[in-house]
Write a structure and sequence with these properties.
The chain is mainly α. Helices cover 68% and strands 0% of the residues.
């Protein structure tokens, strides 16, 4: 199946072919198809320009305006092209409508446009059977990136939307009968998103081709366990083992079986790869804090925390020297610093006497955590410091 740009390009080639046929006939009384060529050329150009502008808006939204060294006004003829599209294309073309909606969503990101988001999603679902794999991935990615940014800004109502979109992508491109390896990022994002959704009833509304519709899930944990079971085998051989054990550890952490989560992580120590490496270290540290509160595992957890925090700090320092990293590294650095302060308090927890300096440090750390903005670990960190 040809992608959207390809269809428009082939339409242009077809009109040019018709012109050559007319010229070959040598009949000057026949119009040489010039206007049709011009119109199809406009279609191709206008859509390409709109699509490129949407990519610019999405990219700017992800990395931040300060990293993009140009602005919308630097796109030549953009204002004229957008005016023509708005006046002549939106009533007759689903594809132009979808990308126009992407433009509206990203241009006015700070405005609550959930209805427009929902309508765009439904319009995509209406034509998804007509799209090729590249287009399917692209149109859903515009919406998933929008959701991720909204969630990062603290709007967790988009968690359900994000997981729904991920399942739509998997259904279209990575179902078990496709014989394609599921992308690690899509696998991980689906699991982490599911574990943050509190509406247990939502999971029985998801329509996954590969998870039987006859199954009923009590909560997010049951659904996530089934998702891991079904889709971990579809990952590439290189990623399968590490991601399977890492996501199982996340699941057991949420189930509060911290000893089981600890043993699972032991299977994937010292794995390479930037954010998978840092994420493994992060969840390892969280598990040790939980084990520290259990009398039977307290001593072992204390030792694991010491070495785990140092390894986490060393990895962050190493990756900071790499020029291509993004904002996630800063999130890891912030989390490490808070955990180190928390550990310093834990080391004194249990002594019969805690002086005024200890209590002041505990209060200061609690206030620092409360000041965090849109941090997914804020509640966990508060729970830990308030338990002291």
């Amino acid at each position: 199946m040809t992608d959207i740009n390809g269809k428009l390009f082939w339409a242009l080639k077809e009109e040019k072919r018709k012109r050559l046929e007319i010229l070959d006939e040598g009949d000057r009384r026949k119009e040489a198809n010039l206007l049709n060529i011009s119109n199809t050329l406009d279609d191709y150009y206008f859509f390409s320009k709109l699509k490129l502008y949407c990519e610019y808006l999405s990219y700017q939204n992800i990395v931040g305006k300060e990293l993009v060294q140009y602005e919308a006004q630097d796109f030549r003829l953009l204002e004229a092209v957008l005016t023509i599209i708005q006046n002549e294309y939106l009533e007759s073309s689903d594809v132009f409508n979808i990308y126009w909606n992407f433009k509206e969503l990203y241009e006015r990101f700070e405005v609550d446009q959930h209805e427009l988001f929902y309508n765009t999603l439904k319009r995509i679902e209406k034509i998804v059977a007509e799209l090729d794999e590249e287009d399917i991935s692209e149109v859903f990615s515009f919406l998933s990136n929008y959701c991720i940014r909204k969630i990062n800004d603290g709007n967790e109502t988009y968690l359900e939307n994000l997981l729904y979109i991920n399942i739509e992508i998997i259904n279209a491109l990575y179902s078990l009968d496709s014989n394609r390896h599921l992308l690690p990022a899509l696998f991980l994002n689906s699991i982490k998103t599911a574990l943050r959704i509190e509406n247990d009833a939502f999971f029985n509304t998801l329509n996954s081709k590969d998870i039987s519709s006859h199954l009923s899930f009590k909560n997010r944990l049951e659904w996530t366990g089934k998702f891991i079971e079904v889709y971990a085998p579809t990952l590439s051989d290189k990623q399968k083992n590490i991601l399977y054990h890492y996501t199982l550890a996340l699941l057991e952490f949420e189930r509060k079986d911290f000893e089981k989560a600890h043993q699972i992580l032991k299977n994937i120590e010292r794995k390479k790869g930037l954010f998978i490496n840092l994420n493994i270290k992060k969840i390892f540290i969280q598990i040790q804090f939980e084990r520290f509160e259990n009398r039977d595992s307290k001593l072992a957890a204390f030792s694991e925390l010491q070495t785990g925090l140092e390894a986490y700090r060393g990895s962050i320092k190493h990756y900071k020297s790499k020029p291509k990293l993004n904002y996630q590294l800063q999130l890891h650095d912030d989390f490490y610093k808070l955990c180190q302060k928390l550990f310093n308090l834990y080391k004194k927890n249990g002594f019969a006497y805690k002086n005024a300096a200890y209590h002041q440090k505990r209060t200061d750390l609690e206030e620092e955590i409360k000041q965090l903005k849109n941090n997914p670990h804020q509640n966990w960190l508060l729970e830990k410091v308030q338990s002291l």
